[in-house]
Amino acid sequence: MLPPTSGGRLPGGLLFLAGATLLLAAPLSVEARQTTNTPLAEHIEAREGLVVVEVEDFATIPDHENGPARMMVLFDEPGTGRLFVNDMWGPIYSVSHDGREVVRYVDIDEARWGVGVNASGRERGFQSMAFHPDFGREGAPGYGKFYTWSDVADNETPADFLPGGGDNTHHTVLHEWSARDAASPTYDGEAPREVARFEQPYGNHNAGLIAFRPGLAPGDAEYGLLYVASADGGSGGDPLNLAQDLSKGFGKILRIDPLGTNSANGQYGVPADNPFVDDAAHPDALPEIWAYGMRNPQRFGWDPETGTMFAAEIGQNIVEWVSVVPRGGNLGWNDWEGSFRFISRAEVSVEAPRSDPGVSYAVVEYSRTDPLMGGRVAATGIHVVRHGLFPGLENRVLFGDFPSGEILHFDADDLPEGGTSGIRRVLLRHGGETHTFLELIQQKNAEQGREPAERADLRFGTGPDDRFFLLNKHDGTIREVVRGAGG
User: Residues near 307 by Cβ (< 8 Å), separated by ≥ 6?
Assistant: First the structure.
């Protein structure tokens, strides 16, 4: 018998209070004990492992009639010696390697091209572009060819990829453009050829990056193969269960040969070594699929040394993450949100995290409530730094959070196994002072006489000799990280 001056809990959930009647305490439900909207106890370190790099203004992209350019991707085209950057409204600009010459190469939204970009809302528009590695190689099969991946207003043309539900809000289309003279300062070809079309069931997170793996040479197995990121179709929680459905093209990264013809629509090729080609275990799987189980893989990239592919994933309402993307890999959505079993838009389960051996789980992840982010979160990236060009960032994977503009990094060789413990932060030195990226944008806005941006909309860009650039949607300024400068 407990002494009269003490209290405690008795078997069966009875609560003993000294000097009081025994009360029956309602035990926590199983669901209440195992689910949460804050599964990550640790936050990203703001100072430990902090790297500061020098940045400088590199080039200015002209305003669109609706406001600042909404820059999405930037890369080098080595055959013609130019950088190319797109604006979500429709234009593509060429930029000289010194940043001094900016020329509008083509506006894919001009009526004569028949594309009809749907740039309504924050998430829709001209999402991405990729120039064939043969673009500047005269006589090569891909000479003069580049590809655009854009949301379009036309939702009546029959689509190649159907969600099997939803509202058919718009379509997302992959186009091939063919310049007659790759070195021409402006596009001199005909209207583009339609390669593939997706019917979008909802109006948000529909498309992501398209890219050819860089650093390859003709004859390499991967040379000329285009990777296409397609989100799960939108709404919330993947209500049509598309990401795990291998018969659907949504919530996937696809891998195609845009110059081939053996696809179902005859407009592109399906590489014979894709993981689900003639796969008896998954007879309904689309042969274009490279990896699946993704909510919104807006950005992906490769380690130039190991060939490892990483993807930055935008979570539902709780976790953001970066994962390794193996051939044929399942990244878990919508069974998992990061390391945790997905329950709903409001909660995940903390019981048995990372317990499915068939899933490629996050290498790093952070909470949507992380104080560093200021309440705006969505993962972006990816750039792997080798060769010691940026002090403190050698052999690190760079990624970021595009609304807040925070730039982050983790070890490329000793990969973390989820959580925030492996994540470190990057700040930017400009004009002798250290800033966040959003602060730099707001300073530029003040110079421009604009209202200060409330978010950064950060994107990365790459140039020749491993040059590295920062893009945004609010001040039209491309910034370059200075090699060999920082501390």
Answer: none
Type of residue found at 156: E
Give the contacts of 31 (CB within 8 A, at least 6 positions apart).
none
d(CA 459, CA 61): 15
- Dump pLDDT digits (tens) for 248-270: 999 999 999 999 999 999 999 99
- Residue 397 near residue 322, CB atoms below 8 Å: yes
Average of per-residue pLDDT across 226-243: 97
How many CB atoms are closer than 10 A to CB 102? Answer: 17
Supply the pLDDT for residue 66: 73
Give tens-digit pLDDT for 52-83: 999 999 999 999 987 999 999 999 999 999 99
Q: DSSP assignment of 252-307, as one string?
A: EEEEEBTT---STTSSSB--TTSTTTT-TT-TTS-TTEEEE--S---EEEE-TTT-
Domains delineated in the chain: 66-297 (2.120.10.30)
Question: What's the pLDDT score for residue 27?
Answer: 42
How much is the pLDDT for 117?
98
